[in-house]
Specification:
4-stranded antiparallel beta sheet, about 220 residues, alpha+beta, two-stranded antiparallel ribbon, 6 helices, 6 strands
């Protein structure tokens, strides 16, 4: 198991699908204790996209897979592409990604009733508003949007590589890959391709740096 540390350098948000009534159009994701988090599925999607880019740019030419049904590092780690295979022909990936949360010491302070943490939690969040500007330089009608964002911080997610397939051929390939390929090193090599996290990362939010730690 390894720890993926996400250093967020600016405001960021991962949409929860919920709104804040008339004040905010979207709220950010929170864990069960009301603290900011990044869903593991979002991190896994970013990692998969980075691996796909690295493969397209021939960064992975030196990685030789063991014999088996899977022909790419991307599919070995992340499984079949959604919608490409039929429901019963999909293959599971080896990489498991947990949600990214605040470090345990910070979480303990923010949730413990005998500290100032619970009173400070609301200050982790900010509201931002945007509106479209027309050609005359004025705000367009009915375009004001409000979103909840989170302060810069450090989050951590647990990653693991496991043999997951029930299919004999793929299971043998996964077992061999764990012993023959530096999968962690390959994953670490694509992290610089991820420069932002969360929603609206192409519009200035979520600038981030990802660091993969050693075994835990």
């Amino acid at each position: 198991m390894r720890t993926l540390t996400v250093h967020l350098h600016g405001y960021w948000r991962c949409g929860s699908g919920q709104s804040g009534g008339t004040h905010l159009d979207t709220l950010t994701s929170r864990d069960g204790e009301g603290l900011p988090m990044i869903p593991g599925r979002h991190l896994k999607g970013l990692l998969r996209h980075a691996m796909r880019c690295a493969q397209a740019w021939n960064w992975l030419d030196g990685v030789s897979l063991p014999d088996g049904p899977v022909e790419s590092v991307e599919e070995l780690l992340f499984g079949s592409l959604s919608g490409v295979e039929s429901r019963y022909a999909t293959r599971p990936g080896m990489l498991l990604v947990d949600d990214a949360a605040m470090p345990e010491a910070e979480r303990a302070f923010l949730v413990h009733p005998d500290t100032d943490g619970p009173q400070l939690r609301p200050f982790l969040y900010r509201d931002i508003h945007r509106t479209a500007i027309n050609r005359q330089g004025s705000a367009s009608d009915k375009t004001l949007r409000g979103a909840e964002v989170v302060l810069p911080m450090r989050l951590e997610a647990s990653l693991s590589l496991e043999v997951t397939s029930l299919e004999d051929d793929l299971r043998r390939q996964q077992e061999c890959a764990l012993g023959e390929i530096d999968l962690w090193g390959t994953l670490k090599g694509v992290l610089p391709l991820i420069s932002a996290i969360g929603a609206e990362r192409n519009r200035g939010l979520g600038e981030a740096a990802l660091i993969l730690g050693g075994p835990s």
